[in-house]
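Render this sequence as a predicted structure.
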Amino acid sequence: MKISRTEVEKTAILARLHLSEEELQQITGQLDSILQYIEKLNEIDTSTVLPTTHVLAIHNALREDTERSSLDLSEVLRNAPEHDGSLFKVPKII
């Protein structure tokens, strides 16, 4: 076994988990299986594999920022339910 029952008990105490005898035995076996699998992964030669953050290449989906003229003030205010000169009128919220 890669992990002992004592280590699982200590970890459970630190995590404030109250485990029964059956749960301790089950978790110890599960953690041991996980650690054995990780040990197999450590045997693989990864010297030619480049470190990556994602498996697939990520491309920016946003458009380029381009300078352009803004809308005419009268055209913008035409869509407002109410306006006062060059300002939108909105209900007071308390």
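Summary. The first strand starts at residue 83 and ends at 84. Helices lie at 5-14, 21-42, 73-77.
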